[in-house]
Amino acid sequence: MSDIHKLSGAYALDAVDDLERAAFERHLTECEDCRTEVASLRETTAMLAESVAVPAPPSLRAAVLTGITQVRPLPPIVAPHRRAAWFPLLVAASIVAVLGLAAAVWQPWTPSETPSLTAAEQVLRAPDAQSVSIDLGKDGRATVTRSKSLHKAVIRTEDMTPAPSGRTYQLWLQQRGEMISAGLMQGGDQEIVLDGDAATASAAGVTVEPAGGSESPNLPPVALFDFSQAT
Amino acid sequence: MDHLKSVPDGVPSTGGTPSGGDAAARLATLMQRSSLGDEGAFAELYDATSARAYGLALRVVRNPAHAEEVVQEAYLDAWRTSSRFEPARGSAIGWLLTIVHRKAVDRVRSAEAATARDATYHRESQPVEHDSTLEAAHASLEAQRVRSAVAGLTEVQREAVELAFFGGYTHTQVATMLDVPVGTAKTRIRDGLIRLRDAMGVGS
Question: How confident is the model at residue B20 (pLDDT cuts 50, 70, 90)?
């Protein structure tokens, strides 16, 4: 991944798409050299703006200065790391608590009969189920599990960063080299059965698309799950 | 494709664009005052930076009404998030113009605005002309440094940096437009910026 350093210039100029920006910002959290370089290149671009300065219309000044009277400045960020680290745990703990409660409540109505499994559970528990996981770094983790005998695949996301505003994650199954839409999803923690016949698919993918989804992927996938790598 | 060269010769600034360390320190102070809710400080900040902010937005989005919207949103964002500005990590003008540029780019990239811009572009395909008195006002030492730094770029670097920064195109689009491999466009952009940085003596 050393090649990602070369994106520093394009990143400093906002000459990247949403996914490249996300990938590079992930890289920035780990690369001091790139942080320093981007900071210096941003200063450079600010100087370039000098060459195109044009006085703003007076009405704009009034609009801005009236506007700020109606907006409260945000408080400074206080100890962000501690909060960031605890938050997912609290969410996870509350999910566990809710699930535990749900299980306890539902117990009396489902005695020793064969429990009816959701479609997702059936796939996850199928004897021929195989999974591929992708670690998205600070954007979470996603796993696709496929059962050929059931012709279905399930994607499970953990703590996945929500799609940017006005965008959605879209799921795809690659059938004979072509990406076929397999539904939409949000970020967070979830379990979704992909639309379509997963038995014939060679891979599953996730892209970021405009809200409502697209006919075909507009951008390279955030994550691509190659079924030949499934275990 | 020559507006990177368009910084005029000659006439030193008499109070147009602030330059030098004192002005930079003043802007940083004003930004910090703003985070405490000081509207007067923000007004002073606006006056010292709005020509650069508006000029940049106008260059990218081209339509003056859209540029005003972009700049207004950017300043409101800057006011709202002023507590997130960290002087140790960069200048206030750099921080502010990063917000402006990002908003301008978002604006032109949204599908609707892209259509509008194409229409505008064909109607107004003349480059935005600079008022000569303004040019004089902005012919600060800083601007002269920019001009000579830009002159030090290779033609292909200048073209790539310009399409990306003022055109608002992604490096992938720049590659297609210039008919070069994606890696080549990415490298030209980065090498060009690094050369500008070094020539202008931007420290970090």
Answer: low
B189–A57: do the CB atoms touch at under 8 Å? Answer: no
- Of the candidates B50, B191, B200, the beta carbon closest to that of A44 is on B200
pLDDT in tens, B110-160: 855 456 545 555 444 444 444 433 344 445 667 778 888 999 999 999 999
Question: CA dist B170 to A36, A71, B17, B122, B166, Å?
Answer: 22, 32, 29, 21, 11
ipTM of the complex: 0.79
Compare all CA atoms of chain B with the CA of A61 and give the residue at the minimum distance.
B46
50-109 in chain B: CB under 8 A from chain A:
50-56, 58-59, 64, 68, 71-72, 75-76, 79-84, 89-91, 93-94, 97-98, 101-102, 105
Q: Decide if B58 and A14 are in contact by the 8 Å CB cutoff.
A: no
Distance from CA of A158 to the nearest CA of B (A): 29
Assign domain B133-200 one CATH number from 2.30.29.80, 3.40.50.2300, 1.10.10.10, 3.30.300.20: 1.10.10.10
Task: State the CATH class of domain B2-125.
Answer: mainly alpha
pTM for the whole thing? Answer: 0.60
List of chain A residues whose C-beta atoms are within 8 Å of the C-beta of residue B89: 39
